[in-house]
Specification:
It is a single chain. The chain has a 4-stranded mixed sheet. A 3-stranded antiparallel sheet has the order 1-2-3, with no helix packed on it. Helix 2 runs antiparallel to helix 3 and helix 2 packs parallel to helix 4. Strand 1 and strand 2 form a beta hairpin. By secondary structure, the chain is an alpha+beta fold. The chain has 5 helices and 7 strands.
């Protein structure tokens, strides 16, 4: 949904209606809301995947449900909800063999959405500043953790690019190689996000406008 506040020159994007439909679809509309999509240190890894005969026998009863929930969450995370993308991508890794703990983690994200269904992305002439920069300047923020993936000990890259007070591009993904140190993980994250920065800069320069969106180097803030 696009909402225009013309007197204040603001533009808002949200998926409140979609979130409500998803909550109703999975019977979570009246659930108890939570303040965070995933608790730190939660056990969501391959060790809780079904392994015994009883667990494997029960798998079909919630396998499709899990995939449907994660698919619905992914659409919201990639469209207007960068706040759930990290938790959603963690759950998405286990769509081939989810356990009860994975299903519980996915439903926790739904409970978070239940309490934040009205959250939206806002763009404006410069109502906010980010790390001391003008809202009309395209800037990036990038960070990584080190060996957070408990299955393969890989690190995660996360970045978001802001323009006019709101995010325009974001991602959370496992790094393709195993970093030997936290410094190496940070370097890999900065390298991956720099490629997106170059693409965004070239895109802004190709737009037919009187004033380019970005002049000079695109500033990126690491860690």
């Amino acid at each position: 949904r696009v909402t225009r506040d013309r007197p204040n020159r603001m533009l808002h994007l949200d998926q409140e209606r979609y979130v409500i439909d998803v909550l109703k679809r999975f019977g979570m509309f009246n659930c108890k809301p939570l303040s965070v999509p995933m608790t730190p240190g939660s056990k969501v890894d391959a060790s809780v995947c079904p392994s015994t005969e009883e667990e494997l026998a029960a798998l079909p009863t919630y396998h499709d449900l899990y995939r449907q929930i994660v698919g619905s969450l992914s659409y919201a995370a990639l469209s207007t909800r960068p706040d759930i993308i990290a938790a959603t991508m963690i759950c998405a890794k286990y769509g081939h063999n989810p356990g009860q703990a994975h299903l519980k983690a996915a439903k926790r994200i739904l409970r978070y959405l239940s309490g934040t269904r009205t959250h939206r992305i806002s763009y404006g002439p410069n109502p906010h500043t980010i790390v001391g920069k003008s809202g009309s300047t395209l800037i990036g923020l990038v960070d990584s953790d080190w060996a957070s993936d408990k299955d393969k000990r890989r690190s995660t890259t996360g970045f978001v690019f802001y323009l006019n007070g709101g995010p325009v591009n974001w991602k959370s993904r496992l790094q393709k190689c195993i970093a030997q140190s936290s410094a190496e993980a940070e370097h890999i994250a900065a390298s991956e996000s720099s490629k997106v920065a170059v693409w965004l800069q070239r895109l802004s320069q190709s737009m037919p406008s009187a004033q380019p969106l970005q002049e000079g180097a695109l500033v990126m803030h690491c860690d």
